[in-house]
Structure formats: structure tokens, C-alpha cells
Specification:
Blueprint: H1 2-8, H2 25-34, E1 38-43, H3 45-49, H4 51-62, E2 66-71, H5 77-85, H6 91-95, E3 101-103, H7 112-128, H8 139-146
Parallel strand pairs: 1-2, 2-3
Helix pairs in contact: 2-4, 7-8
Length: about 150
């Protein structure tokens, strides 16, 4: 997903919590979130159960960072609903409520569904990050991209 986003917005700097970490993981995560204009929340079962990932999204909320939800669930809608009701897993759902979700599911990179999800993320970045705002991009484009 990172490469696909950078193909669309080459001048975008992307920090990931698996790179550029310092000796102290919490210090590295805090710096990465604090320095970010927007946080892309890559939600999957592993993310929902990760203490560090939950700390990241809570910190992003505390700093009032805009959040883009990217869902990578391979589970059925019923299982995802179950996760959202599970008190051990539901914080990321709460903190992305109201946000448009890009649904990557288990789609293969490059397929049309994957490209549609990338487009949703890219359009949100262009709306939410001031230096990438373009007059031709508006919220109605986002809603159109999700109808299928």
C-alpha cells in the first residue's frame, strides 16, 4: 500500500512504525505520530490485538491527528462486527468512527478492488493534508469511489 500511495503522491513522506524506530519503541512511535500530518490506521486482527498499535491510535487521537482507516480484514462482516464489539479489540473502531474506510480485504495488490482502495486513501490524503489539497478533489468524489 505504501508504494502505491507514493506512486500517486511521490513527494509524500511516509513513516511506518516498523522503520525509523529509536532505541525506545515508545519514543519512536510518539515521534512518528507527532510528526505526522495524518495517520493511516491499517486495521486487521493483529492490529486490533496489538497493545502498541492501540497506543499509537490513542496517541494520534490525543494529538488530534486526522485518521484514515484502511481495513485489511479477510474475515466475514459478522466476524468484523464481533471484533468491533469486543472490548479488547474495539478502540481502533471507535477512534475511526465516521471516517471513510478503504477496504483492502484480502485483495491482491494491483487488482481493481485494491486500486479502488488505494484511490480512496490517496483522495483522503489530498483532502486532509493541507500541502496536498487540490481544488478538484472534494468529499463527493470519496463517496462516489466507495459505491460498488
Amino acid at each position: 500500500m505504501v508504494k502505491a500511495i507514493q506512486d500517486h503522491i511521490p513527494e509524500l513522506d511516509i513513516w511506518m512504525d516498523i522503520h525509523h524506530m529509536e532505541d525506545n519503541i515508545n519514543k519512536g512511535m510518539a515521534k512518528g505520530i507527532a510528526d505526522s500530518a495524518v495517520v493511516i490506521v491499517c486495521m486487521c486482527k493483529e492490529y486490533l490485538t496489538s497493545e502498541n498499535c492501540n497506543l499509537e491510535i490513542q496517541f494520534a487521537k490525543d494529538l488530534k491527528k486526522k485518521r484514515i482507516a484502511a481495513r485489511f480484514f479477510s474475515e466475514s462482516d459478522d466476524e468484523i462486527a464481533e471484533y468491533s464489539l469486543n472490548s479488547e479489540m474495539n478502540v481502533p473502531f471507535l477512534l475511526t468512527t465516521g471516517a471513510l474506510h478503504a477496504n483492502f480485504k484480502e485483495f491482491l495488490p494491483g487488482c481493481s478492488e485494491w486500486k479502488d482502495a488505494v484511490e480512496i486513501v490517496v483522495k483522503q490524503i489530498k483532502i486532509l493534508v493541507p500541502r496536498f489539497k487540490q481544488p478538484s478533489v472534494n468529499s463527493s468524489d470519496l463517496f462516489y469511489a466507495t459505491t460498488s
